[in-house]
Automatic annotation (TrEMBL):
UniProt-recorded name of the protein: Family 1 glycosylhydrolase
Keywords in alphabetical order: Glycosidase, Hydrolase
GO cellular component labels: cytosol
Gene3D superfamilies in alphabetical order: Glycosidases
Organism, as annotated: Faecalibacterium taiwanense
Keyword Lipoprotein in annotation: no
C-alpha cells in the first residue's frame, strides 16, 4: 500500500523565523520583532517601558505589565529582523526546495506586511506583491503553497491599542486580513491554516495580552504589579475563544471566495504517556492531554466539550460567549487537522515539571534517547498520536511540523554529515507509513520543520538547526547567508523520489 501517490512531501517554515526584511516595503512592527536572541543560559526576552520611563523585561509566554509598551532596545540583537533572509533569497531557496522534490511548502504570511498596524483600512500593496512573487515562483516549480495566516505573529499596534486577542475587535481585524489574502491568492493557494499551534498561544508575544486585561476578560484572579499570569491563566482562554471564532469565520469567508479551498486548523499535539499504571498517573495523563485537545475539540466538533468547565474552574475563569458564537463554531469547522509532532512526554503524579500545552514538558522517559536540547525522540509515538487524532476527529491529518534541533558541523570540504537528522526523520516517516498501511489513517502530507535553517522560536539561536539546507549565520546574525546542502538534503530528495518506499 505505502504512501498515496498524491502524498504531499515538503517542508515547513514561518515568516518571523525565516523571512527577515522586518521593516522593508511598508511592513509594520510585530511583537516577534521585539524579541531578543537567547540560549539555554539567557532566555529570550521582551523589553517594555512605562510612560514614566521605567523599563523591565518579560519572558516568552508572559503578559506585559499593565500600562507598559513593548520596545526595541539599542545594543540588543533581534533575530527576526534578518532571520535567514528569505525575503531576498526566495528564488534561490525555492529552487533548492524544488531540487529536493518538494510537492508542498508550508510558509506563513506576515500580518504586518499586509496590514502594517493590523487595523488599517487598506492593505499594503507592496506586501501583497511580495507574496504574489513567492507563490508564482513556487507554482513555477510545481510546489503547492500551504499558507499559515497567523503564525506567532502579533501586530504591536493591536497589542498596544486594543489589548490583543482579549478584545473581540481583533476578530474583525483578522477577518479583514484573512479575506484580503484569500481574495488576492484565490487562484494560487489551495491549502490554508488559519492559526498556528492554537493550544500553546499565550501572553504578549502571540496574543498581545497585558495584565490590565485580565479582569475584563473574565478571570477571577488578580495579579500584583510585576506579576504576570502564565499561558494557562483565564485571560488566555477568553483570548483563544475569540481566535477560534475568528478561525471559524475565516473558514466561512474562504469557502465563499473559493469553494475548493482546503482549510486546516493547526495544533501542537506531541504525545503524553502515564509514567506508570497507577490510576493517578493514568488519569493524570488523560486530563493533561485534554488541556491540549480542548481546542481541537472546539475547532472540529464545533462546541466546547463537557470537561472544558473543569479546566476553566481550575483557573477561576468564566467564559464570555456572545450571541451567535456557538452557532459560528458549529457551522464552520476546519477541513483537516494539521499538527506538530516533535516528541512525547510523561505524566508523573510526583513530578512538578508539567505544563498544560499538550505534552511540551514532563517527567523523563528512561526508554527514549534525547536530542542535544533534551527532547525525547519517539517515532512510535507519532503513530500513536496519528491514531489518537483520527479516532477522535475522523478528519484527514497533516503533519506540518516534525524535526530535531541539532548542532551541525561544517567539514573542511564544506560537507555536513547530519546522520542524526536522517535517523530521526527516517524513524518518523516509517511510523507514518505504518499508520497509513496498518491502521488505515488518512495522512495528507509531511512537512518537516525548518527544512532550511531558521531561527529557533524558543531559544532565538541559529545553533539549534533543523534544516536540510545549511545557512551560514551564527547566533548573533554574523555570516554570509550562503546556502549549502546537508547530507540529509540528498537523503530526503531520494525519499520523495521513491514516495517513501526507500528510507535507507
Amino acid at each position: 500500500m505505502g504512501f498515496p501517490q498524491n502524498f504531499l512531501w515538503g517542508g515547513a517554515t514561518a515568516a518571523n523565523q525565516y523571512e527577515g526584511g522586518y521593516a522593508e516595503d511598508g511592513k509594520g512592527l510585530a511583537v516577534a520583532d521585539l524579541i531578543t536572541d537567547g540560549n539555554k543560559e539567557q532566555p529570550r526576552r521582551i523589553f517594555y517601558r512605562f510612560p514614566d520611563g521605567r523599563e523591565g523585561t518579560i519572558g516568552l509566554g508572559e503578559c506585559i505589565p499593565a500600562g507598559a509598551q513593548g520596545i526595541l532596545k539599542d545594543d540588543y540583537y533581534y533575530p527576526s529582523h534578518v532571520a535567514t533572509d528569505f525575503y531576498h533569497h526566495y528564488k534561490e531557496d525555492i529552487a533548492l526546495f524544488a531540487e529536493m522534490g518538494f510537492k508542498v511548502l508550508r510558509l506563513s504570511i506576515s500580518w504586518t506586511r499586509i496590514f502594517p498596524n493590523g487595523d488599517d483600512q487598506q492593505p499594503n500593496e507592496a506586501g501583497l506583491a511580495f507574496y504574489d512573487k513567492v507563490f508564482d515562483e513556487m507554482l513555477t516549480h510545481g510546489i503547492e503553497p500551504l499558507v499559515t495566516i497567523l503564525h506567532f505573529d502579533m501586530p504591536v499596534h493591536l497589542a498596544t491599542a486594543y489589548g490583543g486577542w482579549a478584545n473581540r475587535k481583533l476578530i474583525d481585524f483578522y477577518l479583514r486580513y484573512a479575506s484580503t489574502v484569500f481574495q488576492r491568492y484565490r487562484n494560487k493557494v489551495k491549502y490554508w491554516v488559519t492559526v498556528n499551534e492554537v493550544n500553546v498561544l499565550g501572553g504578549y508575544w502571540t496574543l498581545g495580552l497585558s495584565n490590565d486585561a485580565a479582569s475584563e476578560a473574565g478571570s477571577k484572579k488578580s495579579y500584583n504589579q510585576g506579576e504576570t499570569p502564565d499561558a494557562e491563566a483565564g485571560l488566555k482562554f477568553q483570548a483563544l475563544h475569540h481566535l477560534m471564532v475568528a478561525s471559524a469565520l475565516a473558514n466561512k469567508a474562504a469557502k465563499i471566495i473559493n469553494p475548493d479551498f482546503q482549510m486546516g486548523a493547526m495544533l501542537a499535539l506531541s504525545g503524553i504517556y502515564p509514567a506508570t499504571c497507577h490510576p493517578e498517573d493514568v488519569f493524570g495523563a488523560y486530563a493533561f492531554r485534554r488541556k491540549a485537545l480542548l481546542f481541537s475539540d472546539v475547532l472540529f466538533h464545533g462546541e466546547y466539550p463537557n470537561y472544558a468547565q473543569s479546566i476553566f474552574d481550575e483557573y477561576g475563569f468564566t467564559l464570555k460567549m456572545e450571541q451567535g458564537d456557538a452557532e459560528i463554531l458549529k457551522a464552520y469547522p476546519s477541513d483537516f487537522l494539521a499538527f506538530s509532532y516533535y516528541r512525547t512526554t510523561v505524566f508523573d503524579r510526583f513530578s512538578a515539571n508539567t505544563t498544560t500545552t499538550g505534552g511540551q514538558q514532563g517527567a523523563p522517559n528512561p526508554y527514549l534517547q534525547t536530542t542535544a536540547w533534551g527532547w525525547p525522540i519517539d517515532p512510535d509515538g507519532l503513530r500513536y498520536v496519528l491514531n489518537e487524532l483520527y479516532d477522535r476527529y475522523q478528519k484527514p491529518l497533516f503533519i506540518v511540523e516534525n524535526g530535531m534541533g541539532a548542532k551541525d558541523t561544517v567539514n573542511a570540504d564544506g560537507t555536513i554529515e547530519d546522520d542524526y537528522r536522517i535517523d530521526y526523520l527516517r524513524g518518523h516517516i516509517r511510523a507514518i507509513k505504518e499508520a497509513i498501511e496498518k491502521d488505515h489513517v488518512p495522512v495528507m502530507g509531511y512537512t518537516p520543520w525548518g527544512c532550511i535553517d531558521i531561527v529557533s522560536a524558543g531559544t532565538g539561536e541559529m545553533a539549534k538547526r533543523y534544516g536540510m539546507i545549511y545557512v551560514d549565520m551564527d547566533d548573533k546574525g554574523h555570516g554570509t547567508l550562503k546556502r549549502s546542502r546537508k547530507k540529509s538534503f540528498y537523503w530526503y530528495q531520494h525519499v520523495i523520489k521513491t514516495n517513501g518506499e526507500e528510507l535507507d
